[in-house]
Design brief:
- The complex is a heterodimer.
- By secondary structure, chain A is α+β, with helices and mostly antiparallel strands.
- Chain A has one domain: Histidine kinase-like ATPase, C-terminal domain (Heat Shock Protein 90, 2-Layer Sandwich).
- Chain A contains five helices and five strands.
- A five-stranded antiparallel beta sheet of chain A has the order 1-2-3-5-4, with helices on one face.
- Chain B has one domain: Udp-n-acetylmuramoylalanyl-d-glutamate--2,6- Diaminopimelate Ligase, Chain: A, domain 1 (3-Layer(aba) Sandwich).
- Chain B contains five helices and seven strands; from the N terminus they run βαβββαβαβαβα.
- The chains are: A alpha+beta, B alpha/beta.
- At the A-B interface, helix 1, helix 2 and helix 5 of A face helix 2, helix 3 and helix 4 of B.
């Protein structure tokens, strides 16, 4: 894994608030993986993880980026936002816990499953959050055949 | 059992809101839920997805999962942006007068236990 040069790296800007139409970055990532011929099961995991990451940035943050880097043996996704940060990360990782407003919940978002879904889809998952600064989630999916 | 979208439309009296060109797609199973994260983690590729959500993000979910079609119960009006996005992404959206319970029951008897 060490000496592999990245074959493809792409970063998408995700704006805050526009959550009803968000999902275009994940959709472009999915099409990219299909074109390269990545295995369908891995594409689905990446699609779920990037969608949840994109929605989290759109719903909860002041905006951020979604970056995907594809190596021959691993796909690395980094979702980074500009705050406000998560008060209690352990709680946020629990299924069903959400800070989304009623209005957002009524649209079917804010089920409290975004972060748990992202973790489930990843082989490696790391989340760092600082209040007032932002949140960074890194996910790795091994590209096994 | 596999069933084409257009056959589902005929058998259940569904009207086509978007995606007229994609009605030959085969539906393999069904899934019913309005929480998008749950749909994201559970719905199968090629299923028909029953939901009362009508904003454009349902098309993003359906397209990422390669859902076969979306069915909206209770003749709930679908937003224009959703319809347009569904045309772009090639996701048929169908509308039913039935409520979710009735609709899913009918779908289940047609598609069997495909989840």
């Amino acid at each position: 894994m060490k000496n592999n040069k990245p074959s493809i790296k792409q970063t998408f800007d995700i704006s805050a608030g526009n959550f009803s139409v968000a999902g275009s970055a994940s959709s472009r990532i999915k099409n990219m993986l299909k074109r390269i011929g990545i295995d369908d099961k891995i594409i689905r995991r990446v699609a779920v993880a990037t969608y949840e990451a994109e929605m989290n940035i759109a719903i909860h943050s002041h905006g951020g980026t979604l970056c995907i880097e594809i190596f021959p043996d691993v796909i690395i996704i980094v979702a980074k936002d500009k705050g406000p940060g998560i008060k209690n990360v352990a709680l946020a990782m629990e299924e069903g816990y959400s800070t989304a407003t009623d209005e957002i919940r009524a649209m079917g978002f804010g089920a409290g499953m975004g972060l748990p879904n992202m973790k489930k889809c990843s082989d490696e998952f790391d989340i760092q959050s600082t209040l007032g600064v932002g949140t960074r989630v890194e996910m790795k999916m091994y590209n096994k055949e | 059992m596999l069933m084409k979208v257009k056959v589902l439309c005929e058998k259940l009296g569904l009207s086509v809101i978007a995606g007229n060109e994609y009605l030959n797609r085969e539906i393999k199973s069904g899934y019913c839920c309005d929480l998008l994260s749950l749909v994201m983690s559970k719905a199968d590729k090629g299923c028909c997805w029953v939901t009362v959500q009508t904003h454009p993000n349902i098309v993003a979910v359906a397209s990422l999962l390669e859902v076969g079609c979306i069915i909206i119960p209770e003749a709930i009006q679908v937003e224009d942006n959703t319809r347009k996005k569904a045309e772009q992404e090639g996701i048929p959206i169908l509308s039913s007068d039935m409520n979710g319970f009735e609709l899913c029951g009918r779908l289940y008897s047609l598609l069997g236990e495909g989840r």
